[in-house]
Design goal:
The chain has 376 residues and is mainly β. It has 3 helices and 19 strands. It has a single domain (33-267, 282-375), classed as Beta Barrel (Porin). The protein has helices at 4-21, 98-102, 159-164; strands at 35-47, 69-79, 85-94, 112-122, 129-137, 168-179, 182-189, 203-213, 216-226, 235-248, 251-266, 282-296, 301-312, 322-334, 339-342, 345-350, 355-357, 360-362, 364-375. It has a 17-stranded antiparallel sheet that branches. A two-stranded antiparallel ribbon has the order 17-18. 32% of the residues are buried.
């Protein structure tokens, strides 16, 4: 057990750390400028289909139905680089699903994941160049992976987020601010969600971000590179658009669109004599678009809406050749600046019977969830 003296020492240390964070970081030694941020998230989901395995089909993180869960404990330790200096960032996640889904191949650590771990160098004043080396989250997509940097408005995630795009990359990333309104970035990485490359080729990514004013943001990104095991010729590519516009102080809208292709991933079926057809395999594609809106009624209450369609005609992303639609309404209560309560009302629809319902399979799935988030 802790003695009174130990507790006093811990309290004084935490008080000193808090006061240091309030100081000008440029006047501190690097170890004094290190900051710690975190997020704790819990939820429960009710599935009106009553699946026998208590699983929400085709969901990204909210997989379990009828369970009270501590979804995520996420901590971020960082030292933001000053001009002409180096810094670092280290993010660690603990939870039943999110760390295991986000995990990069080559980092098998059970229910723990190192989401990000990279060194940063910020070039001297005037150049606008930033260099990151290590593992970092993808720049693509409209929605965020829940963490200390922020969360998405909806409690659940879109099909686009889960099936159209990667989560993380490992390699080198360059960023450059041309002017205040225009920034570009480029990456040379191992690939999609792999800390250790599965072939000898590399994947490249480029993004252009335009912020014409304080209310609008448009980001266009592209990724291309071979992603199959021991294959350096069949390339996977995706083009991603994410944009948002704050119409008024009380209304925000957004859009996300993706088009992806994997070369030589659809193979012809057998012929009548059980031999393979003498034709070449074709490219697999996937595509989708999602629309977002958020109405802010008070500083404590808002409502987010999302609608999307995601097509996977070659079954390369979801495992079934299908077209998916999804509609989500999310009331958001900001109880305190650090405590948030959300409730997702969501309806999923597929062109195929992929959702379990009382032991059978149907084309739709309805759920309601309750999510609690605490940030510090």
């Amino acid at each position: 057990m802790f003695s009174k003296r130990s507790l006093l020492i811990c309290f004084l240390a935490l008080s000193s750390f808090s006061s240091l964070k309030a100081q000008d970081s440029s006047k501190l030694a690097w170890y004094q400028a290190v900051t710690l941020k975190g997020l704790v998230m819990g939820s429960t989901v009710y599935n009106f289909n009553h699946p026998q395995d208590n699983t929400n089909q085709l969901r990204v993180y909210d997989i379990d139905a009828g369970s009270l869960e501590l979804d995520l404990v996420s901590l971020s330790l960082r030292h933001d680089a000053q001009r002409g200096e180096a810094g670092f960032r280290f993010d660690a996640d603990l939870g039943p699903h999110i760390p295991m889904i986000d995990r990069s191949l080559g980092l098998e650590m059970g229910r723990i994941d190192v989401r990000q771990a990279f060194l940063t160098y910020l070039a001297p004043i005037g150049s606008g160049l930033k260099i990151d080396v290590g593992k970092f989250t993808t720049p693509c997509g409209y929605e965020l992976i829940e963490g200390p940097d922020g969360v998405s408005d909806n409690a659940s995630h879109s099909f686009l987020f889960g099936y159209a795009l990667p989560y993380t990359h490992t390699g080198i990333r360059l960023g450059y601010s041309i002017v205040d309104q225009l920034a570009i970035s480029a990456m040379l990485v191992n690939g999609w969600d792999n800390s250790i490359d599965n072939n000898t080729a590399k994947t490249v990514c480029a993004q252009v971000t335009w912020t014409p004013n304080a209310n609008a943001n448009i980001a266009l990104a592209g990724i291309i590179g071979p992603e199959k095991n021991a294959n350096t010729t069949d390339e996977r590519m995706v083009a991603d658009l994410a944009a948002s516009y704050k119409i008024t102080e009380y209304l925000l809208i957004g859009v996300s669109a993706d088009y992806g292709k994997e070369q030589n991933d659809v193979f012809p079926g057998p012929t009548a004599d059980s031999g393979r057809q003498n034709i070449s395999p074709s490219d697999a594609i996937w595509k989708g678009v999602a629309g977002y809106a958020k109405a802010i009624f008070t500083d404590k209450f808002s409502v987010a809406l999302r609608a999307e369609v995601f097509d996977d005609p070659n079954a390369v992303r979801t495992g079934t050749a299908q077209s998916l639609h999804e509609y989500t309404l999310t009331p958001i209560w900001q109880i305190t600046p650090t405590l948030t309560l959300k409730s997702d009302l969501r309806y999923d629809l597929s062109s195929q019977p992929v959702f379990e319902h009382d032991g059978g399979f149907v084309t739709d799935q309805s759920t309601v969830s309750l999510n609690v988030l605490y940030s510090f």
